[in-house]
Automatic annotation (TrEMBL):
The gene is pnk-1. GO terms for cellular component: cytosol; nucleus. This is pantothenate kinase. Keywords: ATP-binding, Coenzyme A biosynthesis, Cytoplasm, Kinase, Nucleotide-binding, Transferase. One of its GO terms (biological process) is coenzyme A biosynthetic process.
Length: 445
C-alpha cells in the first residue's frame, strides 16, 4: 500500500508513513494498558470501553451527518447506549429501547437471538429493568424510555465461545420460555446446531439468512441508536481519536458493509431490503487467529492482539528501504512501506532454528497484513460501486487501534479522502441484532 507524489531524492523518512510505522504516542499507551487489564476479564470485553463511554466527540459534517440525529419520516426513535448505571442493571453491554409501539412487544415476552458463526456465538436478548436509571445517564436524549409502570426494555449483548455455555446461559436467563416460543437464530450454526438447540431449550428455531441479518442489524443500529457509528483518527489525542458520526435516516444509504468475522463478506447496501453480497475473502479474523496461534505462543485472541500492539513489524517485514536502500520514488513508494509481509522470516539456507523472531513482532506483522489487505479490498469495492461510506463490522475489529488505523489509512489514502471508513459500537453483533428483529424468519420444527 502507498503511493504519494514523493519527488525528493531517495531518503528514509517517517513523514507521511503508513500508520503502522509511527510509534504509539505515550498518552495512548495508557489507554492500551487499560485495555489489557480489561481484556483479562471475560465478562468485560474491550468493546465495553466505547459502549460505556459517554465522552466520544460528536462531529457534524458537510456530508450530511447531523448532531444530534433527527429521525425522519416513519423512522424508529433512537435507542440510547448508557454508561453502566449503578443499580440492578446488567453487567454486560446493553441499550435501552425507547418506550414506543414498535418495541412494546419486547416488554411482554422475552426475545432471544443467537448468531452462531465460524468462531464466536453472539447473543442479543431483551430484558425488562425495574429500577430507575440515574437521570443524567439519559441526558441529551429527549425521548421517553420508561413505560407508565416505570419499566424499561433493554436489549443485551453477550458473546460465547462454546455452545454448551450458551445453552446453560439461555436456560438461566430465559426462564419464562414455553414450548411454542421461538429462538431467533442466524449464522452457519443456525443450520448445524438447530436440533441440539431446539432439544435443549424446548423451543422452536426461527432462522434468518446471515446476510439479511447483517443488513437488518446495521440498519437498526444506524437508524435508531444515537452515536452508533464513529470514525477513528489515530493522530488525535486521547478520546478525540474516536469521533461520533451520527447520520440522518434519509442519508444512510447507499454504503458498503465489510463484515470481518472468521471470513469476510462484503455487501453493497442500497436500502434495508435491497442489498447484494458483492464479494468476500477467506483472509479474515480466522486467519489472524489461526496463523497467530501457529506462529506465536498466544493462548487466545486477546493475548494475540495485545502482543501485536507491543510488536515492531519492521523486524519481520521487508520494507521498501530493505530492498531499495530508500524510497522507490519513481513509483511513489516510501522507504518505510511494507514491501513483503514477514519476508524477513525466510529461513531457507540458514542453519535450522538459527533465526529467531519475537512473537510480538510476528503478531504485529500478521495484524497489519490482514488489515491492510482488507482495507485495500474494501477500497476497491467501494470505488467499484461508487460508495462514499464503508462501515466495518465483525468481531475481528474489537475497536483495536492498529486495526482501525490501518483500515482507515488504507481507505483514506487510496481514495484520496473521498471515501470514509466508519466503525460501529456493536460491530460484532450486527447479525444477532438483525435476527433479533426479523419477524419473518423461517421456522424449524
Ligand atoms: N474473544 C475472542 N475470541 C475469539 N475470536 C475473537 C475474539 N475477539 C475477537 N475475535 C475475532 O473475531 C473473529 C470472529 O468474528 P465474528 O464476527 O464473531 O465472526 P464469526 O461469526 O465467524 O464467528 C475471530 O476470528 C477473531 O479474529
Ligand atoms: C462463509 C461466511 C459467510 C461465514 O460467515 P462468518 O462465520 O465468517 O461470519 C464467511 O466466512 C465468508 O464470507 N467467507 C469468505 C468466503 C469467500 O471467499 O467469499
Amino acid at each position: 500500500m502507498g503511493h504519494t507524489s514523493v519527488t525528493s531524492p531517495r531518503r528514509i523518512s517517517p513523514r507521511g508513513s503508513p500508520p503502522h510505522l509511527r510509534r504509539t504516542p505515550p498518552k495512548f499507551r495508557k489507554v492500551l494498558v487499560l485495555k489489557e487489564k480489561r481484556s483479562a476479564e471475560p465478562e468485560n470485553p474491550v468493546m465495553d470501553e466505547l459502549l460505556l463511554s459517554s465522552k466520544l466527540k460528536r462531529v457534524d459534517s458537510a456530508t450530511g451527518c447531523v448532531s444530534p440525529r433527527v429521525p425522519a419520516g416513519d423512522a424508529l426513535p433512537s435507542a440510547v447506549s448508557v454508561p453502566r448505571p449503578a443499580q440492578k442493571a446488567p453487567k454486560t453491554p446493553y441499550v435501552i429501547l425507547p418506550a414506543c409501539d414498535a418495541f412494546e412487544k419486547f416488554r411482554k415476552i422475552s426475545r432471544v437471538s443467537v448468531d452462531i458463526g465460524g468462531t464466536l456465538i453472539k447473543v442479543v436478548y431483551s430484558s425488562v429493568m425495574d429500577d430507575e436509571l440515574p437521570e443524567e445517564s439519559l441526558n441529551g436524549h429527549a425521548r421517553k424510555y420508561a413505560y407508565e409502570d416505570g419499566k424499561r426494555v433493554l436489549v443485551n449483548f453477550k458473546k460465547f465461545t462454546d455452545l454448551d455455555r450458551l445453552i446453560a446461559f439461555l436456560k438461566e436467563i430465559w426462564t419464562d420460555r414455553k414450548s411454542g416460543d421461538v429462538i431467533h437464530c442466524t449464522g452457519g450454526g443456525s443450520y448445524k446446531y438447530s436440533e441440539i438447540i431446539m432439544k435443549e431449550l424446548g423451543v422452536r428455531l426461527q432462522r434468518t439468512d446471515e446476510m439479511r441479518s447483517l443488513i437488518f442489524g446495521v440498519n437498526f443500529l444506524l437508524s435508531t441508536n444515537v452515536d452508533e457509528s464513529f470514525t477513528y483518527h489515530h493522530d488525535a489525542i486521547g478520546i478525540n481519536k474516536f469521533q461520533y458520526r451520527p447520520i440522518a435516516a434519509d442519508l444512510i444509504y447507499p454504503f458498503l458493509l465489510v463484515n470481518i468475522g472468521t471470513g469476510i463478506s462484503i455487501l453493497k447496501v442500497d436500502s434495508p431490503t435491497s442489498y447484494e453480497r458483492v464479494g468476500g475473502s477467506s483472509m479474515g479474523g480466522g486467519t489472524f487467529m489461526g496463523l497467530g496461534s501457529l506462529l506465536t505462543p498466544a493462548q487466545n485472541f486477546d493475548e494475540l492482539l495485545e502482543m501485536a500492539n507491543r510488536g515492531d513489524h519492521r523486524n519481520v517485514d521487508k520494507l521498501v528501504c530493505d530492498i531499495y536502500g530508500g524510497a522507490y520514488d519513481e513509483l511513489g513508494l516510501k522507504a518505510d512501506l511494507i514491501a513483503g509481509s514477514m519476508a524477513k522470516c525466510n529461513r531457507f539456507g540458514e542453519a535450522p532454528m538459527k533465526q529467531t523472531h519475537k512473537p510480538e513482532d510476528i503478531a504485529k506483522s500478521l495484524l497489519l497484513m490482514v488489515s491492510n489487505n482488507i482495507g485495500q479490498m474494501a477500497y476497491l469495492y467501494g470505488t467499484r460501486y461508487n460508495l462514499k461510506r464503508i462501515y466495518f463490522g465483525g468481531y475481528f475489529i474489537r475497536q483495536d487501534p492498529i486495526t482501525m488505523r490501518t483500515l482507515s489509512f488504507a481507505i483514506n489514502y487510496w481514495s484520496k479522502g473521498e471515501i470514509e471508513a466508519l466503525y460501529l459500537k456493536h460491530e460484532g453483533y450486527l447479525g444477532a441484532m438483525g435476527s433479533f428483529l426479523d419477524e419473518d424468519g423461517k421456522l424449524d420444527d
